């Protein structure tokens, strides 16, 4: 018990003292996750809106597949990216394996279905409410996409926060494609696993505390955005 208490105190000291190793891992984690969410959002927001507005053969199947992808096992996504980026893979010539770029790709694959599926739901609800008004104004379906996305911006902010939460807490996929290389591809989740196995509890606890605070801030921001949206509708 005393050892655990000492480890916790040391972990707090590492955080408060701005330990370079800890800060480097945290900054790389934020950089990878934020980049992945931004790329995923640029693709998923218009994709989800398009699925909400257009009717086409196989639309139901596409929606079911998209919803199913929300539960994609991270290790499967990591394995798929590994095969793509390995030397024998189609993208092996770019040398991205075991780099932050590979980790971004893996997180994009995991986050994109979440943002796209939730965007489709929100845009579909808005479109059912404003369909007649938009039709009377002669607004084409392609022009409705930015209009409805902007109107749903508060709800979509919550969606993106959920995607960031998924990305920042990911361990399986980034471990496979990043390799957990010190100073290169070591992020909070993979570092916690490694440092715990090495017995370096202070650093593992310090990273765990930072990760918990980050998750709490994400949930608080999502709650605040949700409350703002409800007051606006009310």
UniProtKB/TrEMBL annotation:
Domain ABC transmembrane type-1, first and last residues per copy: 26-222
ATP-binding as UniProt keyword: no
UniProt keywords, alphabetically: Membrane, Transmembrane, Transmembrane helix
Domain of life of the native organism: Bacteria
Transmembrane segments: 22-54, 61-85, 97-118, 201-225
Gene Ontology terms: biological process: transmembrane transport
Keyword field contains Transmembrane helix: yes
SUPFAM superfamilies the UniProt entry points to: MetI-like
Location within or outside the cell: Cell membrane
GO annotation, cellular component aspect: plasma membrane
Protein name (database record): Tungstate transport system permease protein
